[in-house]
# Entry
Amino acid sequence: MFRRRSTRRGAAPPEPPRHLVELRRVVKDYVTDAGPFRALRGVSLDVDPGEFIAVVGKSGCGKSTLMNMLTGIDRPTDGEVWVAGSDIRHMGEGRMAEWRGRTVGVIFQFFQLLPTLTVVENVMLPMDFAGLWSPRERLDRAMALLEQVDMADQAHKLPLSTSGGQQQRVAIARALANDPPIIVADEPTGNLDSATAESIFELFHGLVDGGKTVIMVSHDHDLAARTRRIVHMVDGQVLDGALAAPGLEPAPGLEPAPGLEPAPGLPPVPTPAHT
Ligand code: ADP
Ligand code: MG
# Structure
């Protein structure tokens, strides 16, 4: 019997990615006591190198779930997740950990530093895991990163003896340890006062200026509005990927603003005469 190709799911090899990050119709179901819960409902998103993206949306709309897809911390139920040329859905755990260590730096709301290691040891840890650089170079590199986030003078303290803002600076240095191209941050300023949040946000801006791609969940709309692009999430879906900054091209598929080119084949709208 003749069957249409599209009905044989998974038969055709996937298209290679054209963006640094490509999510294709990503679905994520959680198993709960009340039955399956669909946290992501077919999310597609493209991210190019050097972008600075804020992901915004109400609590529970799926922002952290989306971040966990990008970092390989969790796996999609369906759909494709392409990051830096790899389809990470089918990677084994060992390879995933190695891949993550070199490709994405992850920053969380509650810093998640290891409390029994000093600040500089925390920053060296990803290098130790990835086996990058010699032990001596790791120390030098960690100190240089702490310098970059203005924490070198606290290098030998334990994290909990520093402030929240300082711990987040250390977490940023740790995320940069293996020089990953992508930084993913889940509400990195959510636990900080506004002045400290501002200084952390400035650090992210500096990373983008230095060539990193930053994807940041934020519930702070003022900070989000100052990134180059805002992605709105509602109920497990990306509502739009509208560009926030003026002077950039609108995303393909968005309506042109009224008063621009008439659609081909349509007569121009007459300008009302002033009386
Ligand atoms: P956000 O980060 O936008 O606040 P999350 O991605 O954390 O949202 O959660 C999205 C939805 O999925 C929420 O309704 C949440 O309760 C649910 N959820 C998240 N993680 C799990 C889990 N491990 N098991 C079951 N439900 C979950
Ligand atoms: Mg969250």
In short: The longest strand covers residues 35-47. The chain is about 30% helix and 25% strand.
